[in-house]
Amino acid sequence: MNKPTLPQGTRDFSPDVVRKRNYIFSIIKNVFELYGFQPLETPAMENLDTLMGKYGEEGDKLIFKILNNGLDNPEKESASREAFEKILQGKNTTAITERALRYDLTIPFARFVAMNHNKLAFPFKRYQLQPVWRADRPQRGRYREFCQCDADVVGSNSLLNEVELTNIYLDVFDKLKISTEVRINNRKILQALAEICGGTDRMTTITTAIDKLDKIGLDKVKEELSAKGLTTDQINTIDNYLSIARYSGDNESILTELSKLFAANENGTQGLNEIRYILDNTSQLAFSGKVYIDPTLARGLNYYTGTIFEVKAADVAIGSIGGGGRYDDLTGLFGVSGIPGVGISFGVDRIYDVMEELKLFPEDIHIGTQVLFFNLGEKESQKAFSLAQQLRQNGIRCEVYHEQTKFDKQFKYAEKKNIPYVVIIGETELKQSLCNVKNLATGEQQTLSHTDLLTHKF
Questions:
Q1: What number is the average pLDDT over the span 74-84?
Q2: Sign, CA torsion 405/406/412/418
Q3: Which residues are CB-contacts of 314 (< 8 A; sequence separation ≥ 6)?
Q4: I want to staple 189 with a disulfide (CB 3.0 to 4.6 A). Which of 34, 83, 126, 271 is the partner?
Q5: What's the chain's average pLDDT?
Q6: Domains plus CATH for the chain?
Q7: SS3 210
Q8: Cis-peptide, bond into residue 138, ω within 30° of zero
Q9: Which residues contact 48 (CB under 8 A, 6 or more apart)?
Q10: pLDDT at position 90 over 60
Q11: Bridge-partner residues for 66, per DSSP?
């Protein structure tokens, strides 16, 4: 028999890990709710044409496609062979695959809004916490199945939404005690860069290359731009732009330098004004995280049109733990135009890794069951079960050990499950309506009446 394994890039989550993940989820959800966002869920799979062409050439390659059911039908056999040949050539064919696992939560959300826009009250603010799948190369902090936590506002052009989403980032990470840098840029600035480097048709080429700067370095970025047909002067202009990103000054100094570069460009000026608005309205907040302008931030997804976000942990060398941006006509991809939107996403898996490395989870997070009743006989266990039920009604999480056995075995069970209290009811205690309550952390033991047990603070 083969040893069972997991698909590469996926993981099982033990109870301890799930508790830690739920701790992160609960804080994020609570902050989303504080800002008026509503929960939403969409299917794990979408029609392939919903996803393809929405994430750029690189993103399309990472979409997990799903084989159609019924491919073993003899009537489809010959067609399937031809279709598989197309698949091997990197082409898509509905004879083989019509659906795919969702790549992110934004495009499915846009599809939902397009299908339901006549029923929604705008601006519509939703949050969504669900897994997504990408056929990426697994590495530390990068998985093929991972969970995203998104918050989006659609139906509003107001920059107050960007300010609010920035606040949400700062608020969540402040509560998680993660020191962060919220980096912002604007796609209008990148569009302006493309315009002064030959035209807007160059924008995807430029942003895709800039987005790889951290991974491949400046020289390789220049080589890629040259291979895509940009001239030496145009590449020098981009180098000048990126040199501002390497400038060690504060936000105001970077804005000044960028203003000089784009002084004669309308899109560049508008993008800088939008960044200034966000900075002016977040600078007085008492959060530990900081907001920085990052001109190298490109977010290689084609649908972003305005402000873009990325969050980095200040004390751990790991990829981004959050990102997002404005997309002014995402629903237009589905035939419903004129619905602007802006959203952010939290990378829960990387946030978990950061919190593990920095030991930021609360010490009591592993506590599930609070009280274990020992099983010391049939009558004793019946009474223990009755008391456990009453404690459960009071919100105390309880277990009764499943069988009568030695004390040592029951103590070890409690220790392995991090159960802080045990309640012992033996023959003598049963006759006197008493029980012994032991705190396993301190070793302290006290005898209580059954009535007092029900009001004891565990």
A1: 60
A2: positive
A3: 179, 180, 181
A4: 271
A5: 89
A6: 24-54+103-358 (3.30.930.10), 65-101 (no CATH), 367-453 (3.40.50.800)
A7: helix
A8: no
A9: 63, 65, 92, 94, 97, 98, 99, 100
A10: no
A11: 99
